[in-house]
Design a protein that fits this description.
heterotrimer; A mainly alpha (about 210); B mainly alpha (about 525); C mainly alpha (about 110); B: about 525 residues; Cytochrome C Oxidase, Chain A; C: about 110 residues; 2 domains; 3 helices; about 5% strand
Chain lengths: ~210, ~525, ~110
């Protein structure tokens, strides 16, 4: 039976294609948050004073620490990729585990922030919240919605990195085949970039 | 004629049983899965449309109450937009023919391709589940405008969630196509040796990737709003309903081009094949696809001229809207110029292509009437708008879809359809379509508002004409479908290249084998439309 | 007959010719820069309580600079193919225009 084999088969290995696919996916994530940034900008413009007042409830110190934590986790992922490219599998794994630890730290701090607010009754439906002005309510809704969605992305990114660690250990990701690690890194950096914008927009309105 | 096909095993014969279909990674089988699902939902949507026309046969509540009518036109819109027309051409013909036309054996991510079909099915189930519980399907119109969509007791959350999932499915298709076109073209096939249908798909895919997330997040906000009721889009609570409209149309206007661009790609294939002549202005058509996709992002405000948006913004959006007409017109001129001195063969697909040009022209020009500020104030939310977008969506994309189905039928099934019956079907469809929707344009100018189950008695004669049109149209649809199903069973075997086409899909057997190509594809040095 | 993944790797003309490995030193340098910018943006915000507009613009400029550093170095875009770079800039451009056009409506409302 005549069988013609394509050189450009869709079933060939193609790292550049995987990377391009990942970037395209990141674009969709970016615009997902983009829609929220749009809502944020409009409502902040319409309620400038209320947004300022509401932002005073947020804890700048905690936000700054979390920014530093996330930036550092981005560093460790980037270093992990470099280590893998150089063939240092052990270093690469350790840097990924470090990244996971930073991710957990970020979520723990976030948890304390949220629970402090909710402890003060500052959540939609609670009594302190109900007494706020409409503009402040919008601020808090956006705060919970955007940081919540971001937190969800931190968790997904963490799981992604966990999977990569497993695949490195089983030899499926290795110095001559590490596109999955690179893509996990790309995803993690995007989570970082979104936080880079969320931080000044919510914490630093002064 | 047919024994040239005998030395390959077609993709139908590699793998048997239902699981070899619903878990297949073959782009051709996924395309057929899409075809059958999309066609089913099209018939459901069309039936709902017929019901609406029946209700409108005479004034007053005859068949249904106002709320039922509202739910039916919402369901009609949601099904036709999200379940039929957005996935229609890209997911069916794009999936089947994009890899073949660029000379490869599959898309770049076959597993994502399968996932996108499954998400489509899950989304469809969610959309249909609104029929079964609570207060029935949403009654908001397919636009889910806030604040009504937040307040109504019907199953808006479920419908919105369905649209969210369907959006994800559409993103995956787009992502897959972009990477496929970038990475998997046959060696030697540069960007400008690529046929125009892949070009149109490329432009479409970018819109799918970049616009769909915005509607995703907007719909999530509607759900959050319904659950905790924060007043995000409620003016009584400090929100701004116009912001919802902005977000909605930032996606939904580009989405119109998700629907229209692939259809233009199809016409750009049909016209040269049946004129047996190189396409006129190849590069102009390719670039205009990209230009439409690009400018299409920045014109969404023209849906909101009467919403309370600022006057300055209205002027700017109106100007931008006129800009997008330029690349569309470039395409039309090039198609017509291709016909000039060609040896035109009026086979069924060509009839659909010509009907497309005629109807798209009416749709496009009435679009400009809506895009101009002053006339829009008069025509906004009337039947004129309904007529306009049906001319573009059905008269344009719908006709291109059916035309493509006939054009590629021999390639997909390896059988020829019955030409005579196909032409009869076309005649009914074309006649019924124009009676139905041209009447709507007139009704709109006379002031008949859209989305009402009732109307003033003076509109009745025109409504009767429109309803009769819908019956003729539906008859046409049935003839077409029966003919295709019969031909698939009993039609004579199709040769590799029944139409004398020159793009790569005509070099493979009908139906193609699993790997698509049974020998090395031959690229013409003179580009994709080299008719000697 | 089943479609197995093939080990042959596909290379196109536009692909980066050789693998660029970012050194640890380079990455740490970028990280230090990012932390410094974070400190600067916090300080500006805390010290100048009365300059709201000033603070929004600076905050966004600093955030964009940080994002650019992450994209170019951590995400390696600086050493990636030209096609990818063009795509990234177009996407950011499109998003900016979306914001501007929407803002146009709100800024000019009577």
């Amino acid at each position: 039976m005549a069988e013609y084999l394509m050189v450009n088969s869709g079933h060939n290995r193609d790292d550049q294609a995987s990377k391009l696919g990942m970037w395209l996916f990141l674009f969709t994530e970016l615009l997902l948050f983009g829609g929220l940034f749009l809502v944020y900008s409009v409502y902040r413009y319409m309620n400038q004073e209320a947004f300022l007042q509401a932002s005073l409830h947020l804890n700048i110190a905690m936000g700054t620490v979390n920014t530093a934590v996330l930036l550092t986790s981005s560093l460790t992922v980037a270093m992990s990729v470099s280590a893998m490219q150089k063939g240092n599998i052990k270093v690469s794994i350790n840097l990924l585990i470090l990244t996971l630890l930073f991710a957990c730290t970020f979520l723990v701090i976030k948890y304390f922030e949220w629970s402090a607010k909710i402890g003060h009754g500052l959540f939609p439906g609670m009594e302190h919240y109900n007494m706020l002005e409409p503009g402040e309510k919008l601020f808090f809704f956006l705060y919970y919605f955007m940081t919540g969605l971001h937190g969800l992305h931190v968790i997904i990114g963490g799981i992604f990195i966990g999977i990569v660690i497993r695949k490195i250990k089983t030899g499926k990701v290795r110095p001559d085949r590490y596109i999955l690690l690179e893509n996990a890194g790309l995803y993690w950096h995007l989570v970082d970039i979104i936080w880079i914008f969320l931080f000044p927009l919510f914490y630093l309105i002064h | 004629m047919s024994n040239e096909n005998n030395n390959t095993i077609s993709f139908y014969e590699t793998g048997k049983g239902i699981f070899s279909w619903i878990f297949t990674l073959d782009h051709k089988r996924i395309a057929l899965l899409y075809l059958y699902s999309v066609a089913t939902f099209f018939l459901v949507g069309a039936t709902l449309g017929i019901l609406m026309r029946l209700e409108l046969l005479s004034p007053g509540s005859d068949l249904m109450h106002a709320k039922t009518y509202n739910q039916i036109f919402t369901l009609h819109g949601v099904i036709m937009i999200f379940l039929f027309i957005i996935p229609s051409i890209p997911a069916v013909f794009g999936n089947f023919f994009l890899p073949i036309m660029i000379g490869t054996d599959d898309v770049a991510f076959p597993k994502l391709n399968l996932l996108s079909w499954w998400l489509y099915i899950i989304g469809a189930m969610f959309a249909l589940s609104t029929l079964l519980f609570g207060d029935g399907p949403a009654d908001t119109g397919w636009t889910f405008y806030a604040p009504y969509s937040v307040k109504t007791g019907t199953n808006v959350s479920m419908a919105v969630l369905a649209a969210f999932i369907l959006g994800f499915s559409s993103i995956l298709t787009g992502l897959n196509f972009i990477v496929t076109i970038h990475r998997l073209r046959l060696p030697g096939m540069g960007w400008f040796q690529m046929p125009l249908f892949p070009w149109a798909l490329y432009a479409t895919s970018w819109i799918q990737v970049l616009a769909t997330p915005i509607i995703g997040i907007t719909l999530l906000m509607i759900i959050a709003e319904r659950v905790i009721g924060i007043g995000l889009f409620d003016p009584a609570l400090g929100g701004d309903p116009i912001l919802y409209q902005h977000l909605f149309w930032i996606y939904s206007h580009p989405a119109v081009y998700i629907m229209a661009l692939p259809a233009m790609g199809i016409v750009s294939e049909l016209i040269p094949t049946f004129s047996h002549r190189t396409i006129f202005g190849y590069k102009a058509i390719a670039y205009s696809s990209m230009a439409i996709a690009f400018i299409g992002y920045f014109v969404w405000g023209h849906h909101m001229f009467t919403s309370g948006m600022s006057g300055d913004a209205r002027v700017i959006f109106s100007v931008l809207t006129f800009l997008v007409a330029v690349p569309s017109a470039i395409k039309v001129f090039n198609w017509v110029a291709t016909l000039y001195k060609g040896s035109i063969e009026l086979k069924t697909p060509m009839l659909y292509a010509l009907a497309f040009i005629f109807q798209f022209l009416i749709g496009g020009l009435t679009g400009l009437v809506n895009g101009a500020l002053a006339t829009d104030i008069h025509l906004h939310d009337t039947y004129f708008v309904v007529g306009h977008f049906h001319y573009v969506m059905f008269g344009g994309t719908g006709f291109a879809f059916i035309g493509a189905l006939h054009y590629w039928f021999p390639k997909i099934y390896g059988k020829m359809y019955n030409e005579k019956i196909a032409k009869t079907g076309f005649t009914f469809l074309f006649t019924g379509f124009n009676i139905l929707y041209f009447t709507m344009l007139i009704l709109g100018i006379k002031g008949m508002p859209r989305r009402y189950y009732d109307y003033l008695p003076e509109f009745q004669p025109l409504h009767v004409i429109a309803t009769v049109g819908s019956w003729i149209l539906f008859t046409g649809l049935i003839i077409i479908i029966v003919n295709l199903i019969r031909s698939k069973r009993k039609g004579p075997a199709a040769p590799r290249n029944p139409w004398g086409g020159v793009t790569l899909e005509w070099q493979v057997p009908s139906p193609p084998p699993l790997q698509n190509f049974d020998k090395k594809p031959i690229l013409s040095k003179k580009g994709p439309y080299d008719f000697k | 007959m089943s479609k197995q993944e093939n080990e042959a790797t596909r290379v196109l003309d536009d692909d980066p010719k050789e693998q660029h490995i970012t050194s640890f030193g380079n990455l740490v340098g970028i990280w230090v820069g990012l932390l410094l910018l974070t400190v600067v943006t916090v300080l500006i915000s805390v010290l100048h309580k009365n300059f709201i507009a000033f603070s929004v613009v600076t905050a966004l400029v600093i955030a964009s600079t940080k994002a650019l550093a992450v994209i170019n170095h951590f995400m390696h875009l600086k050493y990636d193919s030209r096609v990818l770079k063009v795509m990234v800039y177009i996407v950011f451009g499109v998003f900016t225009v979306l914001i501007v056009l929407t803002a146009l409506d709100y800024f000019t409302r009577a």
